[in-house]
Design a protein that fits this description.
Order of helices and strands: EHEHEHEHEHEEEEHEHHEE
Radius of gyration: 27 Å
CATH class of the largest domain: Alpha Beta
Shape: elongated
CATH architecture of the largest domain: 3-Layer(aba) Sandwich
Number of helices: 8
Low-confidence stretches: none
Oligomer: single chain
Largest sheet: 5 strands, parallel
Helix content: 40-55%
CATH superfamily of the largest domain: Response regulator
Structural class: alpha/beta
Length: 228
C-alpha cells in the first residue's frame, strides 16, 4: 500500500510509519492539514490516515475539501482522541471511510487500511486463460479465438479443472469427483462429456487442445507450445 499519514504528533506518526514500512508499505507524511491536503491532491495514494485535530486546517476540513473540491475518492481512515458519537458522525458526513480512536493497536490499523484499499480497488474478473481459450469464472463465458462457445454445466466444470491444471494431466477419478461428487456415474459418462467438450473446444478450430492419456486421464494444452 502507498499510505499518506496526516498527523501532527510526530511520535504517533513515526510509530505508524515505522510499523507500516517494516511491513513493506510505502509511507509519506504531513504534519499539518494544509500540507496534507496538498500532498493528497497532487499525489496518488492507496489510503490516507487523517488525524482529526490538526494545525492550519483540521481533519474534517481536509476530508471535506478532498471530497468536494478535489473530487478525490482515496479511502480515508480518521484518527481522533475523542470517542464521541457526534465526532464520528461528522467524520463520516465529510467523507471519511473508517474511524479509529487513540490509542489503537498498529496491527488493527494496518488491517483496516488493507480492507479500505481492497474495497476501493475495482474487482478484477476471474479469468482462466490457455492460449486463445478463455473462461470467465464470474460470467461463465467461454471464448476461443474470441468466439463465444456454448457449454453445459458439466462441460464448464470439466473445462475449469482442465484449465486450472494445464498442461498437467488430470486423473479421470479427479474429474469424476469434481463433476459428480461421491455419486459416481457409469464408466462411459466422463468419456461422453469429454467428447462433447472436444466438439465445442477443438473441432471448430483445427488445433486440438484436449488430450487423452489412456488409462490415466486428460489434459488441456496450448497447441502452439512444445509439449513434453
Amino acid at each position: 500500500m502507498k499510505v499518506l499519514i496526516i498527523e501532527d504528533n510526530a511520535d504517533i506518526a513515526a510509530n505508524i510509519g515505522d510499523f507500516l514500512e517494516d511491513r513493506g508499505h510505502v509511507v509519506d507524511f504531513a504534519g499539518d492539514g494544509v500540507t496534507g491536503l496538498h500532498l493528497a491532491v497532487v499525489n496518488e495514494f492507496d489510503v490516507i490516515v487523517l488525524d482529526l485535530m490538526l494545525p492550519g486546517m483540521d481533519g474534517l476540513d481536509v476530508c471535506r475539501r478532498l471530497r468536494e473540491d478535489a473530487r478525490k475518492q482515496t479511502p480515508i481512515l480518521m484518527l481522533t482522541a475523542r470517542d464521541r458519537l457526534e465526532q464520528k458522525l461528522k467524520g463520516f458526513e465529510t467523507g471519511a471511510d473508517d474511524y479509529m480512536v487513540k490509542p489503537f493497536a498498529l496491527q488493527e490499523l494496518e488491517a483496516r487500511l488493507q480492507v479500505l484499499v481492497r474495497r476501493a480497488r475495482p474487482s478484477q474478473p476471474r479469468v482462466l486463460k490457455v492460449a486463445d481459450l478463455e473462461y470467465n469464472l464470474d460470467t461463465l463465458t467461454v471464448r476461443r479465438a474470441k468466439q463465444e462457445l456454448n457449454l453445459n454445466p458439466t462441460g464448464l466444470k470439466l473445462l475449469q479443472r482442465l484449465m486450472e491444471a494445464s498442461p498437467s494431466v488430470v486423473p479421470r477419478q479427479e474429474l469424476e469427483l469434481r463433476v459428480w461428487g461421491e455419486e459416481l456415474p457409469d464408466s462411459d459418462s466422463l468419456r461422453v462429456h469429454i467428447h462433447s467438450l472436444r466438439q465445442a473446444i477443438d473441432k471448430p478450430f483445427g488445433a486440438p487442445m484436449i488430450q487423452t492419456r489412456h488409462g490415466i486421464g486428460y489434459r488441456l494444452i496450448d497447441p502452439t507450445a512444445v509439449q513434453t
